[in-house]
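Side project, low priority. Logging it here so it doesn't get lost.
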Amino acid sequence: MNSVSSTQHSKKSIALVGFRGTGKSHVGRLLAQTLRWPFLDMDIELVRTRGEDIARWVQREGWASFRAAESRLLCGLAARPAMIVATGGGIVLDPSNREALKRSFHVIWLQASPETISRRLSADSDVTSALRPALTALPPEEEVRQLLSERHPFYEEVADCVVATDHLNPAEVADQLKSCGPVAVLI
């Protein structure tokens, strides 16, 4: 058996990656229901275990502290039984996280245009302020464009499957995932 095949067989969980506002949490819950697998939203889990929202955490200790905790959580999840994981949008920034994703997860990249993401984030401003604090000093739409451009190669590097979410609701995205290679073999 070649190394690609053996690597694919060692992957037991599905990780949804993509920029904030692409639907990872909503789609993850729906996909978990379809597969009857556990679901974990990494941002929610980090907030739960920390006891404070991401905005306060980052304000008090900086992004480096948050990213380190995110990496520890990902490593722990890689060792757990099959599940659906909604990652944070910046999980791909750390090379060791990208390696863990490629090694241990079937990775699905949920994409959306900067305009769609900006619209979704502004419509969900209560969640955005607590769980999705600003990452730069740029105006929101410029921040989305810049960070999407910077992260694109990293998302592309880890993705086993890519789904554009711009014109789909979460149920339609979850339905499309059923024909996505990693998911199709699990259904």
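Brief comment: The mean pLDDT is 86.
Revisit when time allows.
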